Amino acid sequence: MLKKLSLFLVILLTVTLSQKVLAHNTILLLGDSLSASYGMEEKQGWVYLLNQQLESEKATYRIKNASISGETTEGGLSRIDAILEQNKVDILLIELGGNDGLRGFPPKLIKNNLLQIISKAKAKNVQVLLSKVKIPPNYGPRYNQMFEQVFVDVAKQTDVTLLEFFIEKVATDPSMMQADGIHPNSKAQPILADEMKSMLDANI
């Protein structure tokens, strides 16, 4: 009887440890076309490439991609409740604002939307990471400065981690960009995956 009980406890302990090893944090990525494999197959995009690397390394986190091409902060705000309700989310990574800026939306509106998204996530005890976003300089120095300051102010006001703009290293290299000059091409995606991995590893 004691031998059977001991064997049962060993098996139970093994299963429990295995579950702990397999468990990982889910990062929910709320982004736009920069994270939605715009202009290429999904398997060419940086999110897919990074998840493949994380899987092979048995890393402690995986990314669930909820990015949509053309998404704005208002669109993200309209979706966040359902996303948090329907998914296991440990960390929310927000990569939104680019389309707002390209359309010349008021910085105050962008800020308010981001604040609400973060507030909803924090109410669910979800850690939040906010990515900086930059837009082309042709919108004028005043608007660009106000736009970029939004992300700094939101991060400070909500006490969340602010990540650097993850495409910045490739954005000024025409060979890494699609014809529109806004979206990185497939050649740039492994670089973006490495860039994002470095930032995530340092902040989670």
Commentary on this structure:
This protein is an alpha/beta fold. It has a single domain (24-199), classed as Rossmann fold. It has 8 helices and 5 strands, in the order αβαβαβααβαβαα. The protein has a 5-stranded parallel beta sheet. α6 (141-158) links the parallel β4 and β5 (161-163). α2 (46-56) packs across α8 (189-203), α3 (73-86) runs parallel beside α5 (107-123) and α5 (107-123) packs parallel to α6 (141-158). The longest helix has 21 residues, at 2-22. The protein is globular, with a radius of gyration of 20 Å. Residues 7-22 have low confidence and may be disordered.
Number of helices: 8
| Mean pLDDT over all positions | 92
Instruction: State which percent range the strand residues make up.
Output: 5-15%
Distance between the termini: 46 Å
For the largest beta-sheet, the strand count, sense and barrel status come to:
5 strands, parallel
The secondary structure category is alpha/beta
Rg is 20 Å
In helices, the fraction of residues equals 40-55%
User: Briefly, what CATH class?
Assistant: Alpha Beta
Q: Could you name the CATH topology?
A: Rossmann fold
As for the number of domains, it is 1
Task: Please tag this protein with its features.
five-stranded parallel β-sheet; 12% strand; 204 residues; alpha/beta; 5 strands; globular
